[in-house]
Write a structure and sequence with these properties.
288 residues, alpha+beta, twelve-stranded antiparallel β-sheet, 20% helix, 37% strand
């Protein structure tokens, strides 16, 4: 598969090497560490592959323990914790070169009816009214740097910021710790609901810590911090497709002690809340 969406589907298609044991590819890219969303998405695939497929995942809680090495396969070991009447629970440990780099607990729930309410989606421009991220960067810089050009060609998601990017610290004065983007896969992802869930899990780690950075430094350009995801939690409320537009609305209630907390709400085009996300990240000044 050569298109970015196809490569994402291929990346999430794990090899089963034993009962409850799966192996995932880790692309050999010029990155410091394996992208956390990739590890979370692959771990969730491994968990889902050990269920009967009739219960959608409703939540996951994960910790990033060590940075993964690009280009080195990752083995996912699944523990079948519980198969109850309504809920299924799986625990997944990701191992690379004999060391645990990540663990995840996922819960699957038999769909049922109950009370209904949600917070409304913010009123924002639609994705068609906003420029793709690469175009916005290219417009400001006049030319897209080679590194960003390569990244843009490989990017499996179309990303469009609701507010235009800020490029100087002067523009950050009085800015609240909030960010919002429209996203969707750049091509079809097929019809397997687990693939869409894992693809959105992948995407959820891409932008969430933007909300922490917004008041401190421009999101694109030279970075003043080394940033690493520490943990990740998601709650899946409704069915969705990751190859259709969704709004990722993010806020950061606090940053202190070298860590920043971010919360995200993901809505579909109809304004339905489909996923809630929380993540804490480590922020260390470069050179310190």
């Amino acid at each position: 598969m050569t298109n970015p969406a196809g490569r994402l589907v291929d990346l999430l298609d794990l090899e089963q090497i034993e009962v409850n044991i799966f192996r995932g590819r880790s692309p050999d890219e010029s990155l410091q560490r394996v992208f956390g969303g990739q590890v979370a998405g692959q771990a969730l695939v491994a968990a889902g592959r050990t269920t009967d497929g009739q219960r959608p995942v409703h939540s996951l809680h994960a910790y990033f323990l060590r940075p993964g090495r690009p280009g080195v396969p990752i083995v996912y070991q699944v523990e079948r914790v519980r198969d109850g009447r309504s809920f299924t629970t799986r625990r997944v440990v990701a191992v690379q070169q004999g060391r645990t780099i990540f663990n995840l607990t996922a819960s699957f729930h038999q769909p049922e009816s109950g009370i209904e309410h949600q917070l409304p989606m913010p009123e924002v421009p639609g994705p068609e009214q906003l420029p793709p991220l690469a175009d916005e960067i290219r417009e400001h810089l006049k030319v897209l740097p080679e590194r960003l050009e390569r990244m843009s060609r490989r990017q499996p998601f179309d990303i469009r910021y609701v507010e235009r990017l800020r490029w100087s610290r002067e523009e950050l004065a009085g800015v609240e710790p909030r960010s919002a983007v429209w996203m969707r896969a750049v091509g079809p992802l097929g019809d397997d609901p687990l693939v869409h869930t894992c693809a959105l899990t992948y995407a959820s780690d891409m932008m969430l810590l933007d909300a922490v950075r917004v008041p401190v430094e421009p999101l694109w350009g030279s970075r003043g911090f080394d940033i690493a995801s520490l943990d990740h939690a998601m709650w899946f409320h409704r069915p969705f497709r990751a190859d259709e537009w969704f709004l990722y609305d993010q806020e950061s209630p606090i940053a202190t002690g070298g860590r920043g907390l971010a919360r995200g709400r993901i809505y579909n085009r109809e304004g339905q809340l489909i996923v809630s996300v929380v993540q804490e990240g480590l922020f260390r000044k470069l050179g310190s």
